[in-house]
Amino acid sequence: MADPGIVKFEPHGPHGSGLVEWDPIAPDEIETGSPAQRGHIYHEVADAGYMAGVWDCTAMTLKFGPYPVHEFMFLLEGSVTLVLEDGSQVTVRAGESFVIPKGLPCKWVQPDYVRKFFMIFEEPGKAPLEHVAKQGVILPDPSAELAPMDIPDASVYIGETPNLTNQMYFDDPSGQMHVGIWSTTASNRHPVTFPRNELMCLLEGSVTLSGEDGEEQTIQAGEAVYVSKGTQMRWHNSEPVRKIYAIYDPK
Q: Is the entire prediction scored with pTM above 0.85?
């Protein structure tokens, strides 16, 4: 699949086409329900087992077992409860994000319709961490206090150098997928070649991004945008911005 450049993730899929029906979930994976799933993949690197997009599905419960991929999810509608091997439960609701690490033993319980943005990294051929159960379900805290970041090269900014903060919540064992929360004060960057694939879900503020053609897109709090690696991009925000990010940076 071609790199998409800068693309706003639409909650119901791209205008004009929306979400398309996907193949049914294998019956031997289902404990209850007759789920019907749809989705749209905005970016995929098939050889790496990587994809990012939007997905929805009717109610279902999946059987207990190891989760097959690393997955970041931002719930747009509905709720999901993950039942872990010690019997504990983690419930995630619309407006919240979470990460399930590859290999985590769990049961997916979805009492009603669910819609989500997602980023998946399978890392084919790589076994999960031996003690992945200790990681559990990872829940980024949108209101967490973030640590100050160093800026190695202030020349990338036009005008005043901003204050940046960050909190990392997840790194996959290969160091290619990362999830965290990041913030910046007002900033204006020179155009750069974007060094990674990143899904950004804005929690506060707004940002205007423009590509090589100069076309601008403004992303508001509550919206999500994706930038693929190698894209020429300029970033400008006139008010503080806080975002949840999911990164895939292939090695």
A: yes
List phi, psi (to 5°) of 199: -100, 125
Q: Which residues contact 32 (CB under 8 A, 6 or more apart)?
A: 60, 61
pLDDT tens for 148-180 read 999 999 999 999 999 999 999 999 999 999 999
Q: Which CATH code fits 9-134?
A: 2.60.120.10
Same fold, 9-134 and 147-248: yes
Give 147-248's CATH code, choosing from 3.90.1010.10, 2.30.30.220, 2.60.120.10, 3.40.30.10: 2.60.120.10
